[in-house]
Amino acid sequence: MKRSQSVFLIGPMGAGKSTIGRLLSAELKLEFFDSDKVIEERCGANIPWIFDMEGESGFREREEQAIDELTQMGSIVLATGGGVVMREANRRHLSARGTVVYLCTSVEQQLARTAKDKNRPLLQAENPERILRDLFSVRDPLYREIADIIIETDQRNPRWVVQELKRLIKG
Ligand SMILES: Nc1ncnc2c1ncn2[C@@H]1O[C@H](COP(=O)(O)OP(=O)(O)O)[C@@H](O)[C@H]1O
Ligand SMILES: O=C(O)C1=C[C@@H](OP(=O)(O)O)[C@@H](O)[C@H](O)C1
Ligand SMILES: [Mg+2]
């Protein structure tokens, strides 16, 4: 474990970052933040609206600012958004300021878990599976580059993942 107690969850849409992050924070007795929620609260608008009005680049600017601040807080659990690794500054801050956990999930599971949710603008397209596969090929090496812990979540329920993570982090 690094000097900071913070744990940063990374991985694709539907990996379970937001769900597992909240449960893990309760187990570790650390404060929980979800960078997407922080961005929405600060902006006073939801992510689809931000993408509509400011484009993906506007969202990425807001995300970089939020990640820089949140990773400096110390002793938190942070669920990031799936695209956080696309910016070098984010990768640098995450890997220097806490333990980075990659929640690894197949595209089939990502698809099943995100199918009914309209809040992910990148997936509101004709072929979300194609998009998830393309994103995976670009992002998977970047997740791996900064991960301290890699954990498979496909056939595991969130509570099992949390217990396993607790063991690995403390270990
Ligand atoms: N390990 C898991 N097994 C089954 N369903 C899961 C698991 N993790 C998350 N989910 C479900 O998948 C959906 C997306 O999870 P979420 O935490 O929002 O993912 P992320 O923040 O990584 O995009 C939610 O409905 C959640 O309940
Ligand atoms: O993969 C991405 O680029 C995104 C993932 C989303 O977060 P989740 O990974 O929590 O769904 C959210 O940040 C935004 O819709 C963009
Ligand atoms: Mg999330």
Automatic annotation (TrEMBL):
Location (main, coarse) = cytoplasm
Pathway assigned in UniProt: Metabolic intermediate biosynthesis; chorismate biosynthesis; chorismate from D-erythrose 4-phosphate and phosphoenolpyruvate: step 5/7
**Statement: the UniProt record of this protein carries the keyword Thylakoid:** no
Q: Which GO terms describe its molecular function?
A: shikimate kinase activity
Q: Where found? A: Cytoplasm
Q: Binding positions for Mg(2+)?
A: S18
Entry annotated with the keyword Kinase: yes
Q: How is the cofactor bound?
A: Binds 1 Mg(2+) ion per subunit.
Task: State the reactions this protein catalyses.
Answer: shikimate + ATP = 3-phosphoshikimate + ADP + H(+)
| InterPro entries in UniProt | P-loop_NTPase (IPR027417), Shikimate/glucono_kinase (IPR031322), Shikimate_kinase/TSH1 (IPR000623), Shikimate_kinase_CS (IPR023000)
Per UniProt, the keywords (alphabetical) are: Amino-acid biosynthesis, Aromatic amino acid biosynthesis, ATP-binding, Cytoplasm, Kinase, Magnesium, Metal-binding, Nucleotide-binding, Transferase
Sites binding substrate sit at D36, R60, G82, R139
> Enzyme class, one word?
transferase
Outline the subunit composition: Monomer.
Give the protein's function: Catalyzes the specific phosphorylation of the 3-hydroxyl group of shikimic acid using ATP as a cosubstrate.
Name the family. Belongs to the shikimate kinase family.
Q: What is this protein called?
A: Shikimate kinase
Q: Which organism is it from?
A: Thalassolituus hydrocarboniclasticus
Organism classification? Bacteria, Pseudomonadati, Pseudomonadota, Gammaproteobacteria, Oceanospirillales
Gene that codes for this? aroK
